[in-house]
Amino acid sequence: MALTSIFGGSSSSSGTPATSSPSDVKTQLKSQISQELAIANATELVNKVTENCFEKCLNAPYAASQDNCVDQCLAKYMRSWNAISKAYINRIQQASVNGEI
């Protein structure tokens, strides 16, 4: 193993080749941030569904009617989440087209 590889002589610490252009690095960073935001959004969705639907609908002792409540709450929450996400994505895309981002 060469010392240059230990000290990052042939590659950067992020694992990208040293010959990467700044635009390649920028694209990779944008992609990574986008993926991390998607994971954070999915986590937030699961947390909110649990908080809002399960706590609202599930009571002890269990009753079959609770399944219907959870199903309806989840469907309503997902419709709302999708509508908000679409509006947000459209707004971001429009800002990108206009050069605001």
Structure notes:
- Residues 1-23 have a biased composition (Low complexity).
- This protein has 101 residues and is mainly alpha-helical.
- The protein has one domain: Mitochondrial import inner membrane translocase subunit tim13 like domains (Helix Hairpins).
- Helix content is 72%, strand content 0%.
- The chain has 3 helices and no strands.
- The longest helix is centred in the middle third of the chain and has 36 residues, at 22-57.
- The chain is elongated.
- 0% of the residues are buried.
Total DSSP E strands: 0
Q: Any idea what the shape is?
A: elongated
The portion of residues forming beta strands comes to: under 5%
CATH class categorisation: Mainly Alpha
Give the name of the CATH architecture: Orthogonal Bundle
How far is the N terminus from the C terminus?
43 Å
Mean pLDDT figure = 79
Number of domains: 1
CATH H level: which superfamily? Mitochondrial import inner membrane translocase subunit tim13 like domains
Quick take:
The protein has three helices and no strands. By secondary structure, the protein is mostly helical. It starts with a helix and ends with a helix.
List strands and helices in order, with pairings.
Blueprint: H1 3-6, H2 22-57, H3 65-97
Helix pairs in contact: 2-3
Descriptors for this entry?
mainly alpha; 72% helix; Helix Hairpins; 101 residues
